Amino acid sequence: MAALDRLEPLELAKYCFIATICWRLLYEICLVLSPVVIPKSWETIAKSKTKGGEKQRYFCSLVVSSTHASVVALYAFYLAYTTPILTLQTFNDTMEETVIIGVLMVGYLTHDSIVINQYKKHWDGVFLMTCHHGAAIFALSWLMYYQYGHAMIVVTAILECTTPFINLRWILDVLDLKSNPIYLLNGGLFALMWLIFRLIFFGWAGYKYVWVTLRHDLTTNYPYSHFLVVQTGWLFGYYLQVHWAYFIFKGLAKALGISGGGDKKKK
What we know:
Layout: H1 9-37, H2 39-47, H3 55-82, H4 96-118, H5 126-146, H6 150-159, H7 163-174, H8 181-211, H9 215-221, H10 224-255
Helix pairs in contact: 1-2, 1-3, 1-4, 3-4, 3-6, 3-7, 4-5, 4-6, 5-10, 6-8, 7-8, 8-10
């Protein structure tokens, strides 16, 4: 078998397909085991007044989401700490480990795209998430196929460290635990991590890999299409981070009593 960082298109597609099946299998296992392992919480989720239908299936999709995020983020942090992947002065940075992360992410995003569109009548934000997933699948696959810019795969995986916090927020909500101190603590940590990783860290990645430090290397030593993929992918990704940040910090301000949200009752 060829080295993972030199996979042929069919081999790359095969591994991504296997990863998709594995994430789907975890989702189905959650559906089967949850009623047995957490029977009371499972019923509470189904009866919750939180907006949206098919809440039990949404819960299982969040279990898969948090598992995926934890695995790829921890692996990416490990690579960032033990290798020079994020400090290299070139886009010629392919590694077998980064391909593993990329394959896991493409597999998960494919699985999640199928699930969210299956229940698009019940769940909000499906169109935007589908666009996000599609763009990420394309960009990650492109970087793995053309064997360059794998630092961006590591950067993207590190951003996933915020995902378990937003998932926990929804779970606490459907379990009617919004008044629990854990809910506010989780929200505060989520907003802080979003600021650090999704805005500051991802902004730094754009500065280094797209606009300043490595721009000359990318535009000189690679086809222009390679530059367009990196630039467009970062621009679209960062736009989404800022877009979602607005609602995150708005919600946190409301929870802290800084913003009343205009919910005054009429007498």
